[in-house]
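Researcher: Last one for today. Full complex below.
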Amino acid sequence: MGQTREISCEGITKVYDGNKTALSSIDFAIPAHGIFAVIGRNGAGKTTLARILSTLLEPTSGKATIDGLDVMADANKLRERMAVVPQEGRTVAWMTPVQTVSAYLLWRGISYKESLKRAGEAVARVGLEDQADRLNRTLSGGMKRKVLVAMVLASDSEFIFLDEPSTGLDPISRQQLWRLLIELGKDRFVLLTTHYLEEAERVADRIGILNNGRLMAIGNMPELRGRLEHQYSLKVPAGLDLQVKVGETVDLENGQLQVLTTQDEALRISKNLIEAKAQFSVNPITLDDIFTYTVGSIDAEVREDKEADEE
Amino acid sequence: MSRLGSQILASILVNAVYEMKNYPAVLVITVLSPLSFLTLIFFISGGTLLAVGIVGGLIMTMFSAGTSLQADLSHLKNDFKLQDMVVGSPTSASVYVTGMALSELIYTSPALVILALLFGLFVHVELVMVLGIVIVMLLMFLTSISLGFAFATFSSDIVQSFAFTRLLSLLFTTLAPVYYPITLIPMPWRYLAYLSPTTYAAEIGHDLIGFLSLSADMLIIDWVVLLGLTIIFLWVGTKKARWREK
Ligand SMILES: Nc1ncnc2c1ncn2[C@@H]1O[C@H](COP(=O)(O)OP(=O)(O)O)[C@@H](O)[C@H]1O
Ligand SMILES: [Mg+2]
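Model: Here's the assembly. Have a good evening.
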């Protein structure tokens, strides 16, 4: 598999209806293999970016290519080699998992007989052999999502786009999905959007952070960690006098205070906190911390959502 | 099997074969709706409009293929996001819609067979006239399928889309003079009927079975309009349908 293949964006901008800017001049170039997770809050522009790259949506301006093929001019060539599961993509209620995968393969131009053979194999590979011939509408949410993954798994597509494949799944189903994603990412390029930071950290080879239509950071975990000066994170209830000597504090807006600091300083503060019998946590920085540092807390957004719902 | 064959088969399986297996009631409805109109017309007219009603049924069935296509495509696009999956695949818009159109034809086939039998039994015309009616039906099918596809690609709300489908069939097959001759509409109002593409198809059909006798001029106008509409709507369907979103 060629390691030189790239997926790149130059000045990709999307303005909906002439006034709603969803993406502002996105620029990046990354190898087109492994898993690329695009993370960001609701409305950050993840779906817009995924749809432009998967030839479903025209950008307002800018250029994007996958393995040298332009998403606008060479869309038909790209569509031979890509597979897409859109956000809120669902299995057709009146079909079975095997029929679903087989029909998808037929649309990809594979013969009927071959499509049934591959569908059976793919459905088994995602662990649904017992449900293979049951109607999709009788399956659980997690199973339905696996059927969609079986669809792209069964295709020969080199470039796979999955928009929030794990949203709404229970933790067990989500972990099963992660295993499938990792398998998919072994020999293909997978663009995955998610707002579960843990998911991106677990499965992704590369991560892009979107906020308000801007790409705030992109890279693998060590590269993203390198953006932060300090590599340890301490979380304590706000209002304690910590006397931080090295590092910086971030107000998490959820009654907690975060200290980003060095390992030694984290240990020193921890000792004081233990003596003071305070509750706290300390760990090497995670994607969560990087995200908070880059765009602000995701908790704050969840709270905003709740408030909006209550209105 | 060729690649094109596979792609068309996919649409037929998803939208007709697999669906029919699970919702046979839909099939019963497509058979019943032309027949129930026909029965109504038969009793009200004391049997005199039977032939007109049979031809009307054939035209309505072809036109409904397009409105059903619109409803089915919108459902698949908005509720399952299926269209996105197909756009991001080697299947082109025209191949997708050809398969879907054929699937609608499969759905309407039982109704067509019954109407064709009734036609054979109760309408006695020369073979050329039958050919004329088949051509009219084909043009009607192409028109409504193209329109249905174009509308479906723009739809984003399934409720609105179902209401729209019903509105279309109400205006163009129930209200328009498809099951009854246009001459039953009093004069100034008759012009309104010409707003519906089905009127031209039905007028030709009613003429072909000898129920109406249109002047040569009128007949030519009807054919030209029908052909023109078919070409315009085919163009709209192929050029204006929204495959990749703007
Ligand atoms: N079809 C659309 N028309 C108008 N605005 C849109 C449309 N789709 C998305 N948006 C807006 O663009 C922004 C980015 O949306 P989206 O790409 O869906 O974000 P995400 O997937 O990260 O939640 C949001 O503010 C959203 O409201
Ligand atoms: Mg989204």
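Chain B has ten helices and no strands. Residues A 16-17, 20, 22, 40, 42-48 surround adenosine-5'-diphosphate (ligand 1) (CB under 6 Å).
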